[in-house]
Amino acid sequence: MAPRGTPDAIVAKLGKATNDALREPAVIEALKRQGFDAGGGTPDEFARFLADETAKWTAAAKAAGVLAAGN
């Protein structure tokens, strides 16, 4: 994640560093111990993932009758 308007070159540099880290055996193992799978990808793929997850969990919360504060 980075603030909106972060220059593309900085986003690319952060993305590369993140993807490089997610290929490190120690990082993969640490994530596995916490119940996560190492992922990675492009900023566009991450944006789609976040949008999909937000839609999925918003629908689940509504179906369960759970409302966020202020709603």
Briefly, what is this?
This protein is mainly alpha-helical.
Account of the protein in words:
The protein is an all-alpha fold. The chain is built from three helices and no strands. It has helices spanning 8-21, 25-33, 43-63. The radius of gyration is 16 Å and the shape is flat. The two termini are 26 Å apart. The model has no long low-confidence stretch (mean pLDDT 92).
Highlighted features:
3 helices, 71 residues, mainly alpha, flat, single chain
Number of strands: 0
The number of helical runs is 3
Biggest sheet overview: none
Q: Provide the gyration radius in Å.
A: 16 Å
- The arrangement of helices and strands along the chain is HHH
What general form does the structure show?
A: flat
Mean pLDDT figure: 92
Write the topology of this structure:
Layout: H1 8-21, H2 25-33, H3 43-63
